[in-house]
Amino acid sequence: DSVGFAIVGLGGYALNQMMPRFDQSERCHVAAIVSGNPDKLRQVGDAYGLPQDARLSYDAFDRIASDKRIDAVYVVLPTGLHAEWVIRAFAAGKHVLCEKPMALSSADCERMTAAGKRANRKLMIAYRSHFEPFNIEAMRLMSQKAVGDIRLMRTEQSYRMGPTTPSENWRTSRALAGGGPLEDYGLYGLQSALYLTGEMPESVSATTFRPANDPRFAEIFAHVASQMRFPSGAVAQLVTSYDSAGINFAQVRGTQGALIMDSATGYSGQKMRIEGPNARDFTPGDPTVQFARQLDHFADAVRDGATIRTPGEMGLRDLRLIEAIYASAKDGRTVKLAPDGRMLG
Ligand code: NAD
């Protein structure tokens, strides 16, 4: 009993990464598409063999409520639109897979989880690294103390954005992308710092930078650097930038060696090794299975009631930490955190 998805937003990630992977999923299929662009509806609808009444404009979206072919909605729109569309999908009685980051504020995340509970429907955040063999193996290695006790963690997620403006590229618009690189690429570093240490930070300090007179950074930051302290005494340093040469790196240094992931969380091309007395290279599987495995995990939750590994509560937790990072940078002080990521002042 395959889960039928309505895909909302036919942008780069939906068209080039996720939609082609439905073929590899055992329990999910594309049942409908929703877009503001009639040409895209026609082209993509033809490519996926969808009937005319499964090609919807945004205005027609609410019709899915009575459409039995559609079990779930995949929200893959610019981030500033996630909250509105997730809540609309719940109002239509559907389960929701929402792209990361969940939203641009913890308040929106709370509205989204509340709407899911009211509708008694599932909410999963598309944190694909939780379904990717290298990152799953890294979590297992760290929980088994493969580098001893964790002391230092470092992550770097950067690329150099071409010339653009907020009106041309939603990723540079504050209303659609928040502060910029941290919510987008840097979120992979933040996530891995938590799932590799297995801890929540007890405090955070951070700094942001925005160059003058660069239209790319009229509204967003160019870099965000943050430092987190964990209850065990481990410390993580996370940097992310839209204005430096490409990297996607994570390193965990323990008392007996280091785990190095370079690249750490891409669509493919992961590399992972341990340095030190237990030096070893790892190739635990094909990273490209992450997309279909993520879909099948969602189906397991919808059909069999499996517990979601990356629920709305995780997306909310991460938005709280992102808000703490910005609060620290703004005020130039260390922010103390509760175990659920709330700021303690
Ligand atoms: P994109 O720019 O390629 O596509 C965005 C789509 O939204 C476009 O089709 C655009 O037409 C549409 N859209 C609708 N309303 C819009 C508006 N008001 N302003 C601008 N565009 C509007 O973006 P993308 O890279 O596909 O990202 C979409 C979402 O997916 C984001 O939340 C992003 O963070 C997430 N994403 C996740 C991954 C991942 O690896 N999990 C990778 C890329 C993007």
Automatic annotation (TrEMBL):
Domain Gfo/Idh/MocA-like oxidoreductase C-terminal: 145-337
Pfam family of the protein (one): GFO_IDH_MocA
Name of the protein described by the UniProt record: Gfo/Idh/MocA family oxidoreductase
InterPro entries: Gfo/Idh/MocA-like_OxRdtase_C (IPR004104), Gfo/Idh/MocA-like_OxRdtase_N (IPR000683), Gfo/Idh/MocA_oxidrdct_glycsds (IPR050463), Glc-Fru_OxRdtase_bac (IPR008354), NAD(P)-bd_dom_sf (IPR036291), TAT_signal (IPR006311)
Gfo/Idh/MocA-like oxidoreductase N-terminal domain segment(s): 4-127
PANTHER family in UniProt: BCDNA.GH03377
Keyword Oxidoreductase: yes
Record-linked Gene3D superfamilies: Dihydrodipicolinate Reductase, domain 2, NAD(P)-binding Rossmann-like Domain
Keyword entries, A-Z: Oxidoreductase
